[in-house]
Design brief:
Bact_solute-bd_prot1, four-stranded mixed beta sheet, alpha/beta, D-Maltodextrin-Binding Protein, domain 2, globular, 443 residues, six-stranded mixed beta sheet
């Protein structure tokens, strides 16, 4: 294998609820896969070709992705080097683009970056077998996420399910509560009863501003609906719209109730991710924490067992349907080097997705990755939720708007929602600040 550069069980009670809560719409359109049987197209011999791939992953995520790249090397004869961008993808890619030395394939953590780099002339559209693999293996929504002005540039190679709430069943049992099925039940019954029983209901992750955007997105998608969600992303409706104010008022049912948050408001705004997870499952100071499926790694590090001492329920419905908000990472071509499009085609194939799924810590939006590839029933159910949501699934809103507004620490949505958590008394004023920041960022 090529030497790579390295920068330093089932959930029975939750799964029944999860399955009942996510029957939203028809599944993404099926397809035949790259080559139909999980193989890439003929003529993929790439002996002597060297490719550089850059993504944010480090640690176990990097090691798992490198195993996928190893499989591509074995299949094609190419040599693939991996480089970690770290968390600030733009800071890594910017100088390389300006210097004319970008990686051949970059994995972008935000769809908004795809459009930004297309505007800079830094990306090449998907061609040939890569374009075909996208069409064969992904539903329409996932195809659109990597597109700009009708052209396909990116492939969602790794997804994250951001509409689940983790909880300690022991705390629920002691308080005599069960997993809620809607928002009102979660607030007025589950959380209130836990609080009365002397258990802090929620460990908030407010020091990490992105977690607060996730709260807002789930409430807004369920309450206002997918059409309004899309219009807000496109800034076709302003952030001062009544639907935004209503969502902030709904969030205040928790954010403006210090007794429902571990250590009250101060604890909520001063605890970040993943410390909020360990305070539930390690120190056992609170009963619940909201964040995506990726929190499972931190849960295990805290000494809890997913499916036993750590379980999850779907983010409860605020409106007619429960939300299904996803995040993920999009692979794009930044060069015309031979092998680049073949690598993208492989990453879009069921074969690559199956290899990755078997390693764990992974969800795929690829319709043709078989359910049995996932190691446990809980992960299989989460993956199926993403696919079954069909037209009702939506990608993380803050990652689809300009990064200066939606994905920058200390400014934009992150800072404004942190301020709102700190002092939630005026949702209208918060909406005004969001509108001003969006406008200034060019949304």
């Amino acid at each position: 294998m090529a030497e790579r550069k390295r920068n330093s069980s089932a959930l029975p009670s939750s799964l029944a609820l999860l399955a009942a809560s996510v029957l939203l719409a028809t599944a993404c359109a099926p397809g035949g896969g790259a080559g139909g049987d999980g193989t890439t197209a003929e003529g993929g011999e790439l002996d002597g070709v060297e490719l550089l791939v850059a993504a944010k992953w480090t640690g176990v995520e990097q090691r798992n992705f490198e195993q996928v790249l190893d499989a591509f090397e074995e299949k094609t004869g190419a040599t693939v080097t991996y480089d970690s961008t770290g968390e600030d993808t733009g800071a890594y890619l910017g100088p390389r683009i300006e210097g004319g030395d970008p990686p051949d394939v970059a994995v972008l953590p935000q769809p908004g970056l795809v459009a930004e780099y297309v505007d800079q002339g830094a990306l090449y559209p998907l061609q040939g077998e890569a374009a075909q693999a996208l069409e064969d293996n992904y539903g329409d929504y996932w195809q659109r996420l990597g597109g700009v002005a009708g052209d396909s540039y990116g492939i969602m190679i790794k997804a994250a399910h951001k509409s689940i709430v983790w909880y300690r069943p022991e705390a629920f049992e002691q308080a005599g509560v069960t997993a809620p099925t809607d928002w009102d039940e979660m607030v007025t019954t589950t959380a209130a009863t836990l609080s009365d029983a002397g258990s802090a209901p929620f460990a908030m992750c407010g020091a990490s501003g992105w977690t607060l955007t996730d709260w807002f997105e789930n409430v807004y998608l369920s309450q206002a609906g997918p059409d309004a969600y899309d219009q807000l992303i496109a800034h076709e409706i302003p952030w001062t719209d009544d639907s935004v104010v209503t969502a902030l008022q709904t969030l205040n049912e928790i954010w403006d109730a210090p007794e429902l948050m571990l250590d009250g408001t101060d604890g909520a705004v001063n605890t970040g991710f993943p410390d909020c997870v360990s305070r539930v499952f390690g120190q056992q100071e609170a009963a619940m924490v909201y964040e995506g499926d990726f929190a499972s790694a931190n849960i295990v590090e805290s000494g809890a067992e997913v499916g036993a001492s750590a379980q999850a329920f779907p983010f409860p419905a605020v409106g007619d349907e429960p939300p299904v908000v996803v995040g993920g990472d999009i692979a794009v071509a930044m060069s015309e080097q031979e092998g680049t499009q073949q690598l993208l085609a492989y990453l879009a194939s069921p074969e690559a997705g199956t290899t990755w799924a078997e390693l764990g810590g992974y969800l795929s939006a690829n319709s043709n990755v078989p359910a049995e590839a996932y190691a446990d029933e809980f992960t299989r159910q989460l993956a199926q939720t993403i696919l079954d949501a069909g037209d009702n699934v939506r990608y993380d809103l803050s990652d689809q708007v300009p990064s200066a507004f939606g994905a920058t620490a200390g400014s934009g949505m992150w800072a404004i929602l942190q301020d709102h958590l700190r002092d939630p008394g005026d949702p209208e004023a918060t909406a005004e600040k969001l509108e001003q920041a969006a406008t200034e960022a060019g949304q």
